[in-house]
Every structure is written in structure tokens, then in C-alpha cells.
Amino acid sequence: MRKKTIPVLLAFVLILTVSVPAQRPQNQASLTDEQKLLEAMHLIRSETLYGYVEELTSEKFGGRLTGTPEFEASAEWVISHLKKWGVQPGGDNGTYRQKFPNPYTLVFPGGECSLHLPVKDGIVKKFYTYESEFLPGGTSGSGEVTAEVVFVGYGITAPELGYDDYAGVDVKGKIVLMDPEAPVTPRSADTFPKWRDYCFHQYKLENAVAHGAKGMIYNYGPIGNPNNSYREGFIYHHVGAAVVADIFAGTGRTYKATIDEIRKDLKPRSFATGKTMTVKNVTEHHPEGVGFNVIGVIPGTDPKLKEEVILIGGHLDHLGRAWNLMPGADDNATSVAVGLGVAEAIMKSAVKPRRTVLFNFFGSEEQGVAGSKYYVEHPIYPLDKILVFINMEGPGGGPRFSASGATTYTSFWSFITKANEKYIHRVVGGGPASYPARPRQDTAWFFWAGVPSLTFGASGGKSAPAPSYHTSWDRIDFIDSEGMEDMAQLLFMAVMDIADEEKVDFRVK
To answer: How confident is the model at residue 189 (pLDDT cuts 50, 70, 90)?
Structure first.
């Protein structure tokens, strides 16, 4: 963290100011609005934001899986800050919570991923390493399946496209190995829309169950992910390259060549591998689960402009435990920290926004982006009154800032570049807003509803010794707290500038 020192002369002046409180109002009255905003901006400190991330990633909040008591506790902690600063509640019935149904699954220690190897006197098991080679499926059933593995490509049955990964193979009672996504990428603008619905994890799992499979090894990371269907007794793991290579070994095929062939001619290459595996998980499903978004409102001061809304958001939730704690530091505790920093600065600023500023700390982003979807379907302000949605994903990742949507919403982006060039001086860039595939961020639902929507993030910081996305390595140790401070200060100055403009319209005509 940056250690900030106070020069001796400035310290002396501060002592005099504290000693003569009667002079303070007069000095404040002589400040310009910009000077008052700068005073509020400098209330945002890296030490404070770092402390927020440290708290949110602590063991007591248990990885913040939406629906769990630990998520509830983390939300109450956020709410306590909003209350303390006087941010008004924007949820149901005068609360800060906007509730929605949210089934969830707890994952406990005791899982196993192993390959059966024939030897002279029988079978030996090759056990794969937790996290580096496999992770339990975040919505897996509880139990154990030992069966032959059948490779089923992308796990898609699409008669209208003349494509069926299950044609010609029998998967009843067996374990299927498949890839995520589809053989056509979102960059294929002409053909991808026909394949989009087959990319969803839920579809792939449900299709495997429909074909009689009892288990699945999903070539996905391995990363943790609670975004899937739950089917009692259906056991699955997320696996990485080591497991996939072992399954293909000795079959006369390689994984890469097989996938390349599928993509080239859009013809399945499914086959029974002859390999036997055991997949085991210990889980507990909660169909009665309830999630919620945490919503705070700072009403605008202008009688007319207060009907227009600037929305600042980032998801509060993460993966919980799978089975070890998944802290979710940069995904997405840093966004909550930055949002809280902006909220406090606005509330303590001597200059108040003329437009309404809405803060939404979403639940269930990791469980199908359900919280933002629910908000878009049940907005507390009309969607056409939201000038812009400023979303954040990983703003603690380093010194370089970027935003998807920067080149789409150029009139909005001019406020960002203005604030950056005048006050912050970071490397800031971005690209277009584009969400052709399944929703992966809260931004997508707002973008599809016609709301100008951008997602801010940061990169170039310290790297963890192992992949950190959706793993236990997403820890506070690798967070750039100075970057968080500058991101919060940048957004604060830009938002206050937008809030003061007489006329703003960021929608692309």
C-alpha cells in the first residue's frame, strides 16, 4: 500500500486549523466546487479499500456463495456501511435487499477423481490432485460413480443444425467427457446465434442426464463454478489438461486434433474411450435458497434531473467453498470495495449530485448472473431513466485500467478521459460493448435491455503462483490497493461531473 506522508508545514497548518474551528466554515465557503470535490475524492484511501477486501475475503464470510448464511453476513456488513453514511435503502419494503429465488449447493471435502489402470494383478487407481487437476462441480449431486468414459465433444444435440454429439454412442450409466461452449465461436457472427443456446452449462448437463449418463467430467479449467443445474445423483467434476490427456492416451487419437476436426467440419467425433474413472463428490443441495441484491440510493438534488439515474455496480457474491475456501478477492470483493469508496465520498462531499446515483451490489452473478437479470426484470427506476451502468469486474488487478464499452459509448467515455487526464493519470483504454454469447457478467442483461453499459477492470499487477480465476488463489495478496484507490477516485470524479451536466444522453443512436 502507498504510505502517504504530510509535510511539516502542512501538518502545522492542519494543527492550527483544528485549534481554530470557527475559521473552518469560512474557509469551506471560500472553496470552489472543484476544490470541494477534490477534498471528497481524497477521502478515498487505498488503506481503507484494502481493508474492505481483507474483510470480505475472510473465513467468516465463507466465499460469499449467494443463498448461504455467509453471503447474508457479508451483505449485512456492506449494508452497515451504507447505513452509517446515510445512503438510502433501495430494496424491498424499505430495506437494502431485493430478494429472488436462488437454489444453491454446498460442496464438502471427500471428493475423488481417479482413473482405473489395469495391471497384471487387477486395477490400480491414479488419483488426480485437487484444484490443479480437478475441482468438484459446483452443483454436483452427492455420491460416487465408477464407469467407462465416453467422449461426447461439446455435449450438444441440435437436430435443426444436423449435429448430435450423442449419435452413435451409448452413454447410459456412463461418464461423459465434454468441452464447454460450442464448435462455433461468438466471433462467427453469422453462424453463432444458432448455437448460442447450446453453450449454457445447464443445457449440457441436462442433455447428458437426458441421454442416461450418470456422471460427467467437464474440460473446464479446472475452475470452480456454481453456475449449473442440479440433478440428484448426477456427479461431475471440472478437469484440466492432465485428466483429458490421460483419457485420450492409447486411443489412437489426441484431444487437440479431435476438437480441431469437429470445429473444421462441424461433424461430431464422439467415441467410447475404454477408460474407467471414478468421480465422487460430497454435497448438500438447498432448493429453498433465497438470494438478493444489495441496493443503495443517493437521491439527486435537482427536482427534474433526479429522475435520471447513474448506476454503479459490481457483484458481491463468489463461489463459496469447493471444498476449500474460494476467497474471491479480485472477483469481486475489489469491486464492492471501490463501490463503497465512491458511495462514501459522495455522501461526505460538500457538493451533492444533481442526478440520482444508485449502487447495486449484485447477488448470484456466479450462479447464472441471476441477480442482475432479476433487477432488470424488476427495476426500482425505469430502465430508460438509467443514463449509464458502470459495472466493475476485478478493479484490483493492477495499474492498467480498461472498460468494455469504451468505444461504443464515446460520449460517456469522454467524461472518463477528462477525469483521468485531469486528476488520476493512469493508463486507461477499452474496446466495444459486445455480448453475443451467454451472459458472463452483470453488464449483459442491462446492455440487452438497451441501457448503456460498461465493465471496468484492471490488469498488469502481481500474478499468483497458479491460475487465480475461480480458484483459491484469488487472494488479497495479489491485489493492487493503489489501483483500487485510483479507480474509485476516477469514477467518483467522472460520476459527479456527469451528475452535474444539464443534458446527458449516452445511448447509441
So the answer is: confident
Angle at 97 between CA 332 and CA 102, to 5 degrees: 70
Give all strands (DSSP E) within 30-128, no chain letters. Answer: 88-89, 97-101, 104-119, 122-127
184, pLDDT greater than 60? yes
Instruction: Return the closest-CA partner of residue 488 out of 476, 480, 500.
Output: 480
Closest listed residue to residue 344, CA positions, set 54, 81, 39: 81
Residue whose grid cell is 426500482: 380
Structural domains of the chain sorted by starting position, each given as residue range(s) with its CATH number in brackets: 33-102+289-500 (3.40.630.10), 112-286 (3.50.30.30)
> Cell triple for residue 218?
467437464
Burial 123-156 (b: 16+ CB within 10 A, else e): eeeeebebbebbbbbbbbbbbebbbbbbbbbbbb
Share of the chain above pLDDT 90, in %: 92
Integer Cα distance of 146 and 139 in angstroms = 19
CA distance 159 to 237: 28
Contact partners, residue 19, CB within 8 Å, separation at least 6: none
Q: pLDDT at residue 448 above 70? A: yes
Taking the model in full, what pTM does it have?
A: 0.93
